[in-house]
Design brief:
CATH class of the largest domain: Alpha Beta
Number of domains: 2
Structural class: alpha+beta
Oligomer: single chain
CATH architecture of the largest domain: Alpha-Beta Complex
CATH superfamily of the largest domain: Nucleoside Triphosphate Pyrophosphohydrolase
Strand content: 15-25%
Number of helices: 6
Distance between the termini: 58 Å
């Protein structure tokens, strides 16, 4: 028998770097979108990529991701910032070994800061129109979309993407974009009402909200039911 394997086998390579990228999902009332930035550095200067930052040696992963969210949106404690997984292909970064610990977040349409972001080369892109991105960021986007698809089926997190007052048409549109399927309108609404998540505001849209048709009934979500279902989950099957 050969020599026993000893752990640790060798000294760590401290020349490997860590980064984090964030897939930020937003819903403007019509389209589910992802926030993209434009690179200002070689070798991908001018290319689009996900908002990203390198981690310092003394930074904790989730806190670093939340700091990036705060830099983008100007507040702490977003409704959801969640770690996805590590993307660590050896040659994913042409400048050296960089392992990316990716995260994703959901934001409400009220948090969109379009003009400010455009000034810094950032803008929203519909999820079905994401172009070729720098590094392996298309793989990260694909993984995040699958995570979102699973989450909205098991948790009512989709409500975090909606305005405070929304129509059933907006809600169905969002869930169809997130789950990448078409629902029967009648069946969709029947199951939603059964869930007790909706609160009828007893007023109609004036048509000023993007994606809202004038005269459509307005709803909000039930905070108590939302909190319970966020913890316990539910099976959103259609």
């Amino acid at each position: 028998m050969g020599d026993m394997i000893h752990f640790p086998q060798e000294e760590p390579d401290f020349q490997a770097a860590l980064s984090t990228s964030m897939v930020v999902f937003g819903f403007d009332g019509v389209d589910l979108k992802i926030l993209l930035a434009k690179s200002t550095r070689p070798p991908f200067e001018g290319a689009l990529f996900l908002p990203s930052r390198y981690l310092k040696a003394n930074e904790e992963l989730l806190l670093s991701a939340k700091k990036m969210f705060n830099d983008l949106f100007g507040y702490d404690n977003p409704s959801m910032v969640e770690q996805l997984r590590a993307f660590g292909q050896v040659f994913r970064h042409p400048g050296g070994r960089v392992v990316n610990i990716a995260h994703y977040a959901l934001v409400n349409t009220d948090d969109f800061r379009t003009e400010e972001w455009e000034h810094h080369g950032m803008h929203w892109v519909p999820v079905n129109e994401v172009p070729d991105l720098a590094f392996d960021h298309n793989d990260i986007v694909d993984y995040a979309r699958e995570r979102l698809k699973r989450r909205v089926r098991r948790r009512p997190v989709g409500f975090d993407l909606l305005p405070k007052e929304f129509t059933l048409g907006q809600l169905q549109n969002l869930y169809e974009k997130a789950m990448r399927k078409t629902f029967d309108k009648r069946n969709f609404r029947k199951k939603l009402f059964k869930s007790k998540l909706l609160v009828d505001l007893e007023k109609k849209s004036d048509g000023s909200g993007y994606g809202q048709h004038k005269g459509s009934q307005l709803f909000s979500f039930n905070d108590e039911a939302y909190s319970i279902m966020t913890l316990k989950g539910y099976d959103f099957v259609f």
